[in-house]
Amino acid sequence: MVLDYEIPGNLKNLTDTLYLINNCGYEILNEIWSYNIIKHKWTYIKPFVNSIKSKVIQKPVPRYGHSSVYLEKIDTSVSPAILRKYMFIYGGFSQYCENLCDDIWSYEIAYAPQRYFPLSNDLSEWNRGNVWNLITPDSATPGKRIHHSMVVDSKYEYIYLFGGMSLDSNNEYILNNDLWRYDIKFNNWEKIITQGILHVMRQV
User: Fold this and answer.
1) Nearest-angstrom CA–CA distance, 18 and 34
2) Burial class (CB in 10 A: 0-12, 13-18, 19+), 168
3) Diameter over CA atoms, the chain
4) Cis bond upstream, residue 62 (ω within 30)
5) pLDDT in tens, 56-82
6) Which residues pair with 82 in a beta bridge?
7) Dist CA 90 CA 58 (whole Å)
8) Which end of the chain is more exposed for a tag (fewer CB within 10 A), N or C?
9) 183 — phi, psi (to 5°)?
């Protein structure tokens, strides 16, 4: 769960933003919580370690202003094939990223088969369900940004990212109106060049 807020219009650079965070008592977190819509109950989730031997939990650094999407995959590497569920996140603000982040992570959501599968006693790895994984795309990314929007297509093949805020060379915020597509299967980002009406002039 992340405490979020809007940056006032007079705060244009990173220094002012950090000053606001430090002086208003905000704590940026990297926790996962699930909400049961039937029981109206929140539950804290502690991810499994990525390596049983090192006992390290690999997970995104604390941040806010990132975006996330839900998607599903049919895993045919096992027999019978099983349904696997994921949350993908991208970007956001974190002091650990030195300002804005440009990383993409996947979290596999543990549900019935994964959640109740008995863990082995021989310290073998178990990386299906309740594990974070950092993804390294095979292409250029949309770059560091915050407050962008993301959606996934109905077949869970692509993640689309639009807009958001980024920082220029003077650490001043700029608005973006670019559109990107992430190919989940082939692990690469592609900037989409749109056609037709690119923008509409508006007045009060």
Assistant:
1) 29
2) exposed
3) 68
4) no
5) 778 999 999 999 999 999 988 878 888
6) 75
7) 16
8) C
9) -85, 110
φ and ψ at residue 113, rounded to 5 degrees? -60, -40
Residue-by-residue DSSP string for 71-130: EEEEE-SSSS-EEEEEEEEE--EEGGGTEE---EEEEEEP-HHHHTPPPPSS-----SSS
Q: Residue 17 has which token pair?
A: 């933003």
In this structure, are residues 49 and 80 in contact, taking their beta carbons and an 8 Å threshold? no
Q: Which of 99, 184, 87, 96 is nearest to 146 (CA)?
A: 99
**Integer Cα distance of 60 and 29 in angstroms:** 10
pTM higher than the cut 0.70 = yes
Structure tokens at 159: 């993640």
Token digits for 121?
A: 């006693």
